[in-house]
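Q: How would the structure tokens look for this protein?
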Amino acid sequence: MKYLPIIYVRGYAGSDRNVEETVEDPFYGFNHGSAHIRVGVQGNPEQFFFESPLLRLITDHGYRPVFDHHNQQLSNNPKSIWIYRFYDETTESFGSQTAIRLTIEQIAERLRDLINTVKSKTGANKVYLIAHSMGGLVCRSLMQKIYPENNEKAIDHVDKLFTYGTPHGGIHFQLGGGVLEKIRDTLKLNNSDDFGPRRMYEYLTPKPQQKILLPENFDAQSLDNAFPTDRVFCIIGTNAHDYDVAFGAAQKTVGPQSDGLVQIEKAYVKGSHRAYIYRTHGGRYGMVNSEEAYQNLQRFLFGDIKVKLSLNQVALSDRKDTFYQMEVRSALRGLPVAIHEQSIDHYCPITLELTRGTPIPLFTAFMVPSYSVSGDSTCRYAIKLALHSFVKKERDWLFGSHIDQLPLWSDYLIVDVTVLDGVYEAKYTWNYESEEPHIPITPNPSADGFIANIALPERGKKILGNEATVHLEIFSWN
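A: Here is the predicted structure in token form.
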């Protein structure tokens, strides 16, 4: 495992009271746990304890927290967690004479200073950045604007970026037809315009490259080659229902296709790794204080293997007024929760075109062989695939139209990956045929790494085409 110092960057505090509540917490919320989880078809709550990402990093990996970056006790210790307390500077409780908040750019500049301090005190050459919500935009401003303006490269200082519910594409509302966004960006109350396109362009673009008018081709979800997208992982929440901030007004305004505050399609950097989990932006069902997000976090940061799955050579039948959606659920043996779930009920299935010339990404898992439940460095994961077709039928104009759901095929692909002396071995089964992986996977001998294609079962071939396969890539990570 590769250990580096962790810096946690929290999200937006909406009101002055929220700021005061934030600075009263030594860990800015990274220590919050949870006792609830949604389970079952009806989403009933059950008791499930998650101690907090902070405590789990301490108990699972031996990290130690830093309250004050002047603390000398952790010198030359890379396994340390540093809380970036950027709200302290403008709070009255610490004697500030002004309530004016720092801009994203100012927060990012101070984050650069903190990273230099952490590197100096720990002896590490890089750091891991973990960020919630707006904190991810602060990290991106550092990478895309602050470092380039100082003739530096982010990859020379930051090894990986992990974000929870960051509005990488801004915050948009389902209601209002764009009027609410214009009001927010005009009033700029408590820097709330930071989530609009104009301000995002300003703090994500180096000053010499900025234009007076917002370019039509500005893509807020692009890192613009400032940092490798392979080193970024985005947690995307899909539970809007349980986000009760402002008595539920936020989730009603943003809409159900969100975590209650950030819309699903705006919560990731393009090209990054991502996991969809049935969690809200915050609160008792929040994503930061969740087992699902933590399992992705520790594996992305410290994992030894990267396993990438995609669907190749899909050839669905072309039927009039038909479109397709794929549900994907990924689980690892020994874990009590799924680490990734894209479902129709949660408004985040994979939408399939009739034919695809390029692979359809399913999920990328990061694994730790030493966590093997079987004790033999074998990592087992099960990925559920379920293909649905939808047919839109026009009715009389008075009744509008309706959509019929037609289930076509579903199965579980179970894969075992074993690493012995640096050599990968893998075997699989489709659950409809067997419960234990027993079919050896033979990799392409001319390819770098372990690359192979897994044949679909006959039922799957009938729907997705005889040439369709699950493409498997296994590489060393870290």
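The CA atoms of residues 115 and 187 lie 33 Å apart.

The chain has nine helices and 20 strands.

Upvote if useful.
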